[in-house]
Amino acid sequence: MSVLVITGTGTEVGKTAVTAGIAALARAEGRRVAVLKPAQTGLLPGEPGDVAEVARLAGDVTTRELARYPDPLAPATAARRAGMATIHPADVAAAVTDLDATHDLVLVEGAGGLLVRFDESGSTLADIAWAVNAPVLIVAQAGLGTLNSTALTAEALQRRGLESIGVVVGSWPLHPDLAALTNLADLPDAAGAPLLGALPQGVTKLGSVDFLAVAKRSFSPWFGGEFDPETFAAQFAVQ
């Protein structure tokens, strides 16, 4: 696999932290990594966006952002309000092809959830994943409600013939409640794919060296980490 699309079950679920963690682990293995953000919303020109955060946490990675819109809305809506051009799957596919030629791993980070619209024709991150022929990683919340949103995302991927490689909890709480604890066992069923990691809450406050150490513990060996879902769950006693 040289291209991976990263989607969330919604907004603010930890996609950028997960993207940075995967990038940091790949860099630690000596791989050349590129991170592509097709559309960044909610920021003005010059303000640091998601790719800047990935570079801060992961280190020496190539970053590219194709479009930026000031309003914190879905890309298609934000583009319409700003009177700006939208991003189409073909634009993203061209950028991925370009980056893939000179990198070992290209990570494509979505905006919000899987079916958020990028253009006036209704194209979504699912269409982008199809256009670049890449598998998808689901980033989910830890607590109550996550099973439904994860299952809906997985079903949408399946109906479109897209491969879901697994699910990662983007922000594991410092004090997990009963819902979060039981979700460790239930998320793989909801996703129809394995639990491949759980990043602790607040991990983005770390510097790059400490972040890499946490990423090593928090991601599956599939990404170069040490995370084992059964060992992780065994730390917590569920009555």
TrEMBL record:
Pathway the protein takes part in: Cofactor biosynthesis; biotin biosynthesis; biotin from 7,8-diaminononanoate: step 1/2
Binding residues annotated for ATP, in chain numbering: 50, 109-112, 170-171, 201
CDD domains (alphabetical): DTBS
Keywords: ATP-binding, Biotin biosynthesis, Cytoplasm, Ligase, Magnesium, Metal-binding, Nucleotide-binding
Enzyme Commission identifier(s): 6.3.3.3
Gene Ontology molecular function: any one: ATP binding
Binding site for Mg(2+): 16, 50, 109
Catalytic activity annotation: (7R,8S)-7,8-diammoniononanoate + CO2 + ATP = (4R,5S)-dethiobiotin + ADP + phosphate + 3 H(+)
Active site per the UniProt annotation: 37
Cofactor section: Mg(2+)
SUPFAM superfamilies xrefs: P-loop containing nucleoside triphosphate hydrolases
Binding-site residues for substrate, renumbered to this chain: 41
GO cellular component: cytosol
Any Pfam family matching the protein: AAA_26
Localization annotation: Cytoplasm
Physiological role: Catalyzes a mechanistically unusual reaction, the ATP-dependent insertion of CO2 between the N7 and N8 nitrogen atoms of 7,8-diaminopelargonic acid (DAPA, also called 7,8-diammoniononanoate) to form a ureido ring.
Assembly mode: Homodimer.
Family: Belongs to the dethiobiotin synthetase family.
HAMAP family reported in the protein's UniProt record: BioD
Protein name: ATP-dependent dethiobiotin synthetase BioD
Organism: Lentzea atacamensis
